[in-house]
Amino acid sequence: MVARRGFHTTRPRMSSPYHYPEGPYSNLPFNPRSKYFGAGYWTFMTVGFFAPFGIAVYQTYKTQ
């Protein structure tokens, strides 16, 4: 005999839509609403994207 299992989920609590009493963005270690956030963000992304290519070029041209 196989017992049927009833699937159910816990009802979500809707007391805070952001899950933090301080509000949104309070759990981030940086301030995305600051004046220089965009420049810092794109600098970080650009360096992170081009670093492997720069390292590959360096490894190709260095003397052994």
TrEMBL record:
Pfam families: COX7C. It is found in: Mitochondrion inner membrane. GO terms for biological process: mitochondrial electron transport, cytochrome c to oxygen. GO terms for cellular component: mitochondrial inner membrane; respiratory chain complex IV. Coiled coil: none annotated. The chain crosses the membrane at residues 39-58. This is Cytochrome c oxidase subunit 8, mitochondrial. The lineage of its organism: Eukaryota, Fungi, Dikarya, Ascomycota, Pezizomycotina.
